[in-house]
Write a structure and sequence with these properties.
By secondary structure, the chain is mainly alpha-helical. It has helices at 12-20, 26-58, 63-77. The radius of gyration is 20 Å and the shape is elongated.
Length: 86
């Protein structure tokens, strides 16, 4: 892939974390992290557009449904306590 040279200043803790993870190069690690972040934001934006389309077509969720959705999202945002359990 074509490369473009830019100056990028990273916080010391970020550099240390990348180095401790055995990153093959800081440039490669930064590209990987930024590529993932951009993909995540693009996915979120697409989801927001889709939800807006659903609201326009069907109206907003009923208050009780909105509360249930918020509760589920809060639950999903919590770290899993059964990680590593088979």
């Amino acid at each position: 892939m074509k490369k473009r040279r830019v100056t990028l200043n990273l916080d010391e803790d970020v550099v240390e974390a990348l180095e401790s993870l055995g990153a093959r190069s800081l440039s490669s690690a930064a590209n990987d992290a930024l590529r993932q972040a951009v993909a995540t934001e693009a996915h979120r934006a697409a989801l927001a557009r889709w939800l807006d389309e659903l609201d326009a077509a069907h109206g907003p969720a009923a208050p009780e449904d909105a509360r249930a959705i918020d509760s589920l999202l809060d639950e999903l945002a919590q770290p899993s306590t059964d990680a590593g359990v088979a």
